[in-house]
Amino acid sequence: MSSVAVLTQESFNEHRSGLLPEQVGAGVAGSSDAVDEDNLPTYKDAFPPLPEKAMSSEGPQEAGNAWTSKIRPLRSSIITQVFHVPLEERKYKDMNQFGEGDQAKVCVDIMQKTGAHLELSMAKDQGLSIMVSGKLDAVMKARKEIVSRLQTQASATVAIPKEHHRFVIGKNGEKLQELELKTATKIQIPRPDDPSNHIKISGTKEGLEKAKHEILLISAEQVENFKVNANNCDGHLCVIALGVDVSHAIFSFQKRNATTIAVEVKKSQHKYVIGPKGNTLQEILDRTGVSVEIPPPDSSSETVILRGEPDRLGQALTEVYAKANSYTVSSVSAPSWLHRFIIGKKGQNLAKITQQMPKVHIEFTEGEDKITLEGPTKDVQMVQSQIEAIVTDLVKTDKFYQFELSLVSKLRGRVVVINRIKDQHKVSVRIPPDNEKSNLIRIEGDPQGVQEAKKELLELASRMENERTKDMIIEQRFHRAIIGQKGEKIKEIRDKFPEVIINFPDPAQKSDIVQLRGPRTEVEKCTKFMQKMVAEMVENSHSVSVPIFKQFHKNIIGKGGANIKKIREETNTKIDLPAENSNSEMIVITGKKANCEAARNRILAIQKELANIMEVEVSIPSKLHNSLIGSKGRFVRSIMEECGGVHIHFPTEGSGIDAVTIRGPAEEVEKAKKQLLSLAEEKQTKSHTAELRAKPEYHKFLIGKGGGNIRKVRDSTGARIIFPTAEDKDQELITVIGTEEAVAEAQKELEALIKSLDNVVEDFMSVDPKHHRYFVARRGQVLRELAEEYGGVMVSFPRTGSQSEKVTLKGAKDCVEAAKKRMFEIVEDLDAQVTMECVIPQKFHRSIMGPKGARIQQITRDHNVQIKFPEREDLQAPPAETQVQENGESNGEIKEPADPAAPKKCDVIVLSGRKERCEAAVEALKALVPVTIEVEVPFELHRYIIGQKGSGIRKMMDEFEVNIQVPAPELQSDIISVTGLATHLDRAKEGLLERVKELQAEQEDRALRSFKLTITVDPKYHPKIIGRKGAIITQIRTEHDVNIQFPEKNDENQDQITITGYEQNAVAARDAIQAIVDELEEMISEDINLDSRVHARVIGARGKGIRKIMDEFKVDVRFPQSGAADPNLVTVTGLPEMVDEAIDHLLNLEEEYMADVVENESKMAYMKPSGTAAASSEEARGPSKGFVVREAPWTTSSEKAPDMSSSEDFPSFGAPVAAARASPWGPKRF
Asked: Taking every annotated instance into account, which residue ranges of this chain make up the domain K Homology (predicted)?
């Protein structure tokens, strides 16, 4: 049997610790040449072999085998048990729901609760078999649940002496739980204060019997114990029968002959009297026959009762006191922060003490300044003296420093600074947490590091005393704008105020508080800066809503968004238009108030140009405004819809302004004004409101075509009737407003109409089958329109192909009559329908149709005709081939030549409808044929009229709805052709000539702006004139409105700067540049030697340090590039006196920083020992002989000891063994 062992330094030390003292001595002496081989361990002792086969139970077991003594038989932890529930004891007996219903739910719940697996099956006798699998405790719990929840329960009682109840319960109730699991029953034992001795058991019949038997056995066992004790006392009782009566007899006997003594023993010493698992009490009872009663742990009593024969009580009392005083509890005062140093790294210090005094228990309580010791008195005293000595040594050392600081709460937030101090000085800094309510800060580490850390912390505390925290109230909607995209804007603020910490609340908190923390003066500056920024944002967030008719939104936007973009840029506002599919007409403008008003006026001006829009103001007392607007704007909305969509604007509530603005087409504005004043007059006199209900499908019929029906009611009664809009929730509610008499009369008329509509009738009419298709075409669009207009009347036509003329109408009587009348009109129109042709050249068809066929649709609606355009002729198609004739005969029919005067098919537009309507439609179509005029525009202005990528000419074409044709550049012509409707041409011509005037004025201005001026400046000053990121030159350009051009790299005249603009502006810009040059010429540059090791600290994080120096002394400091010949050379440029001050400051900084550099380098020299020292220590240690054993296999046989350094005997894991010799021909191939 061979074995492999890996020997490490730790296992070697462990092995040595288990040897006898003389063996240890021999091991130590082994370092010399003389080694006592008899004291060496044998190979089998050091490396016991594994057993070759399992030992039989009958055979002898080898005691000395270290491996076999630890082997234990393995058993499965999963068990399976089957429980049977008879039919009469089943709780759920519904045979139809096996595997489902409440029984299945209970089983699933048991499996989830216990972790066991349940399988149910039904026996022939309808009994239930349950197989439970799982771990033992899970199976027992599942069994108990099954019995209590799936099986009917029975109950029984068993009476045993009251003093035996505690044995049934057991320690911590363990015995009782075991009994309940074992018998699958519920056992209820009366409380100690209950005199009853009856124990109640509930469960199955089988379980009841088993539980009763087990309880009686426990009671009988206690009676037997009493009998034995009684016989040992005096021998008078010889025969005692088992049972309850006998138990009482024994108890009475003991009570008559026993004496009781009560003594006081400290509560902390009770456990020593009890002993482990009560062994000490049992020992006292065995030796003296006296029982010792200890109060329970949860009781505060310290009284111990001894019960027994008088002559034995003295001995028992002596033993009790001896046991109580054999152990003692003591404490050592030690600050809680010292506890970890007393324990030592990985418990080394404490381990030394506990090894010497293993019986002493040492307890450290977190947060308490004491250490508790417990154990034998002498041992405790020795341990106490050792720990006190350790505490004294630790307190005296200068490795620890403590001081109180009132700003502890602020220091907790400076985690980065504290961590830097820790890392820099190699110390530990402990700041008490919030819950300690302490100001004591402790620093631990080497003496020098502790002193330096203390100094830095005190400096930090003094700076923090001047620190201020301020809360700014900024609306959360501005937080994102202040932070900026990817935090760019807040970064600029933080760079401007680097010493101020700015904290924004979490967006989810919906808080407006922004916290600023830092030096008092910096916080105040930052606060003012941010307040100014917020004020600008508030000013720029003014919002105005402008109502613009939906049809004009496209004109506001312009071609490719040109108009709206221009308004946005010129007014510096944000303009939002509603979506195309939205019913809203409101355009929202956001920005500064003045800019919003300017944008609003420009948008309204566009609308006014496009349509005959007028605006009037009506004076109505402000107290009536809310009543005129109505609930959710119902009243005012009804007026706006009735008057062709005019816009009525009421002033803000509470403003006290009486003026109400009405805007829209002139006729509609007058109509709305009249209705608004009428409604206001009614409200002022005696307004009355009434409500009535009607089905939504009746509303259109009640309103009538063009509002005719409702207008009749309004004119006859004087009341105003408001129908619900699509947005209203209640679609049946109709509101009547006016004087009481008018409302009553209107209500009466409407109710009569609604009542008649509820009277459903069925009527018939005859319609020629040739017209049926017109009504049912396009998915019955005509029928749908009839139903909507006439109160939901239903029209039914006969089936296709039946040739029946009978058409059925069903609905309200009035609605049916009106629909019938309308259908007769339609049939009459269809009978009187004619077809007419209108010849218009195909090239004008697209123009006539208009955008998306809008113009042609308008003519169709206005004249109630059908218009059909011909198919477009392909102008690129080749002419039809001439028919080939053979022998002078044609292959087909001879076609007569077409009449040249006849119109082309592609030019003929066909109209269908009544004759007079078709004639009017033809006139309307001909009026849409575009006309062309010519306008003279100088050729050099053509490119400006066209604009960039044609944007200018497209804008004019969209604005005036014409086509503008500019001649090709090679023609050099001044004539521009304008084609469009005659009504549009005059406006287009005026617009074009106006644009020519603007361009001529721009040309003159451009000539004035092209004045050029050249200034000579030494190239070395160019970067200074440009400034950082072009800041200075940009400011000059903006301030003087000029263009400044610096020479290119390859330019001959590198000193020439060109200025272009108005003459006076160019001269002013030249003077500004000359002033900068004059100032730069006064400056000097000086080089100084500044140790390169301090450059980084002088520059600072992200250049903050050097920027501060340059701003303070108004100089420019240049450091050498990496790889420069002289890395210490630094150049300072500026005014002479400023340069001198800056140099002095830099040299002072160098002196200060060099002290730190030298100190750090000296520390590093100690931290990194030289390689020679390490090598010499290895040599002094000498070669190690390793671990030597006797009777090893290689010494008792011919085998050779393995070579530990051989890679063949001991190959590395995962690494191939190197070949002994490489072949010059490469690796072998097999």
From this structure: 152-220, 257-325, 326-392, 399-462, 466-535, 540-608, 612-681, 686-755, 759-828, 832-930, 931-997, 1009-1078, 1082-1151
Q: Which two tokens stand for residue 171?
A: 């320690």
Per DSSP, 152 falls in state: -
Tokens of 1191: 């009777």
Separation CA 408–CA 434 (nearest Å): 9
Q: What is the pLDDT of residues 927-963, one digit of tens each?
A: 888 888 888 888 888 888 888 888 888 888 888 878 8
The strand order across the sheet containing 259-264 reads 259-264, 303-308, 291-293
Q: What pLDDT, in 10s, does the model give residues 1100-1136?
A: 888 888 989 988 888 889 899 888 889 999 999 888 8
CA distance 1189 to 37: 9
- CA–CA distances in Å: residue 1028 to residues 456, 1023, 1035: 37, 8, 12
Beta strands in 922-1074 (DSSP E): 931-936, 962-965, 975-980, 1011-1016, 1043-1045, 1056-1061
The β-bridge relationship of strands 975-980 and 931-936 is antiparallel
Contact criterion met (CB below 8 Å) for 383 and 395: no
Q: Give the distance from CA 627 to its chain's centroid.
A: 46
Could you tell me which of 1008, 1122, 1022 has the C-alpha nearest to residue 1065?
1008
How far apart are alpha carbons 620 and 200 in whole angstroms? 91
Q: Evaluate whether 573 touches 595 at the Cβ level (below 8 Å).
A: yes
Tokens of 853: 């066929």
For residue 1016, list its beta bridge partners: 1056
Ramachandran area for residue 484 (φ above 0: left; ψ -120 to 50: alpha; else beta): left
The CA distance from 586 to 1168, in Å, is: 78
Strand, coil or helix: 179: helix
Helix 951-960 vs helix 982-1009: crossing angle, to nearest 10: 150
Measured in whole angstroms, how far is the alpha carbon of residue 1138 from the centre of its chain? 54
Q: What Å distances lie between residue 184 and 77, 180, 190, 217, CA to CA?
A: 21, 5, 20, 18
For the segment 103-149, what is each residue's pLDDT rounded down to a tens digit? 788 888 888 888 888 888 877 777 778 888 888 888 888 888 887 78
State mean pLDDT over 1150-1159. Answer: 84
Looking at residue 1227, the DSSP 8-state letter turns out to be S
Percent of the chain whose pLDDT exceeds 70: 79
Amino acid 1219: pLDDT? 46
Give me the mean pLDDT over the 666-691 stretch.
74
Q: What pTM value is reported for the model? A: 0.30
CA distance 824 to 829: 9
CA atoms within 13 A on the CB side of 1111: 7
First-last CA distance in the chain: 37
Closest to 914 (Cα-Cα) out of 866, 868, 856, 870 = 866
What pLDDT does residue 402 have?
A: 61
Q: How far is CA 485 from each of CA 506, 535, 536, 701, rounded to the nearest angstrom?
A: 17, 20, 18, 57
- The C-alpha atoms of residue 203 and residue 210 are separated, in whole angstroms, by 10
Q: What is the DSSP letter of 397?
A: S
pLDDT value, residue 374 = 81
Q: Which of 428-442, 561-575, 734-748, 962-976 has the lowest mean pLDDT?
A: 428-442
29 pLDDT higher than 60:
no
Distances (CA, A) of 1143 to 684, 1110, 1127: 86, 11, 17
Positive or negative CA dihedral for 882, 885, 891, 893?
A: positive
Mean pLDDT of 244-267: 63
* CB proximity list for 747: less than 8 A, separation 6 or greater: 690, 692, 736
3-class SS at 1156?
helix
Q: Average pLDDT of 659-686? A: 76
| pLDDT tens-digit readout, 427-446 | 777 777 766 666 677 777 77
